[in-house]
């Protein structure tokens, strides 16, 4: 299992280094990816260890939690998948786990948040890779068809390398980047994968169905213009619309 924090280019990146990487990740909002298998070896190792947890029909969630806790985040490992957008948080697919789960990296600009949502009977693990997320949990609406504010159960601030768990049995939640100056990057595993969920109005408790999509899959931008499922370009194709953006 992984337990030692690595260095990037023979040294550990400082917070200032990370900020510089994110500030200068290119005109597209997608960081430049160096074609180096060495940089991403630890990410591949993490993916492999997660896959090992799912080899058997019975899944021990404590084993998965241990793997995630034991991985010490380094931007060199996951920068291939850390793709920001100026107007929304992004969901970047990393691994589909032979249909048993989805692993993805979410990128949150300053102040960005999700809607209050459920998880369609899936189990959700979140590990913070850089920055912080505030998780606010809510109880399920008590009466269907009657407007009433959602009951807030509590808030938790999750920082780099923290791991948290959520399921529909616990309730609903909202994730938010509390910083007004820094971005946040988080790793999410959903068991099983899902392509839609319910989003809730905090004031009324009313809910609507929402389809979830990916900003990138396996490091490549997804094109939804002609397909609801999204189309990926060839691996070596350049498919990014260039526009100046910095999440900071």
Automatic annotation (TrEMBL):
SUPFAM superfamilies: RmlC-like cupins (SSF51182)
Cofactor: Fe cation
Superkingdom classification of source: Eukaryota
Pfam families, alphabetized: CDO_I
Metal-binding recorded as keyword: yes
Enzyme Commission identifier(s): 1.13.11.20
Family matches, as CDD domains: cupin_CDO (cd10548)
Cross-link (3'-(S-cysteinyl)-tyrosine (Cys-Tyr)): 124-190
Pathway involvement of the protein, from the record: Organosulfur biosynthesis; taurine biosynthesis; hypotaurine from L-cysteine: step 1/2
Gene Ontology biological-process entries: L-cysteine catabolic process; taurine biosynthetic process
Keywords, sorted A to Z: Dioxygenase, Iron, Metal-binding, Oxidoreductase, Thioether bond
Molecular-function GO terms, alphabetical: cysteine dioxygenase activity; ferrous iron binding
Known catalytic reactions: L-cysteine + O2 = 3-sulfino-L-alanine + H(+)
Chain positions covered by the region annotation Disordered: 227-248
Source organism of this protein record: Panagrellus redivivus
Record's cofactor remark: Binds 1 Fe cation per subunit.
Ranges annotated as spanning the membrane: none
Protein name per UniProt: Cysteine dioxygenase
Family under the similarity heading: Belongs to the cysteine dioxygenase family.
Residues binding Fe cation, per UniProt: 117, 119, 173
């Amino acid at each position: 299992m992984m337990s030692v924090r690595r260095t990037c280019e023979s040294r550990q990146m400082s917070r200032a280094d990370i900020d510089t990487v994110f500030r200068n990740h290119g005109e597209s909002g997608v960081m430049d990816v160096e074609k180096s298998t060495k940089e991403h070896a630890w990410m591949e190792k993490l993916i492999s260890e997660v896959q090992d947890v799912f080899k058997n029909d019975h899944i021990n969630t404590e084993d998965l939690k241990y793997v995630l806790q034991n991985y010490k985040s380094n931007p060199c490992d996951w920068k291939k998948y850390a793709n920001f957008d100026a107007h929304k948080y992004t969901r970047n697919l990393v691994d589909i786990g032979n249909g048993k789960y989805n692993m993805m990296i979410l990128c949150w600009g300053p102040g960005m948040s999700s809607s209050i949502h459920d998880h369609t009977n899936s189990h959700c693990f979140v590990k913070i890779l850089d920055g912080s997320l505030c998780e606010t949990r809510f109880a399920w609406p008590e009466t269907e068809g009657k407007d009433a504010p959602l009951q807030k159960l509590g808030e938790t601030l999750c920082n780099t390398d923290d791991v948290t768990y959520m399921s529909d049995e616990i309730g609903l939640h909202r994730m938010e980047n509390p910083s007004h100056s820094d971005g946040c990057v988080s790793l999410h595993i959903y068991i099983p994968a899902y392509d839609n969920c319910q989003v809730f109005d905090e004031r009324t408790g009313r809910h609507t169905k929402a389809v979830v999509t990916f900003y990138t899959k396996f490091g490549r931008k997804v094109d939804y213009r002609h397909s609801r499922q999204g189309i990926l370009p060839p691996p070596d194709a350049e498919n990014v619309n260039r526009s100046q953006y910095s999440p900071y």
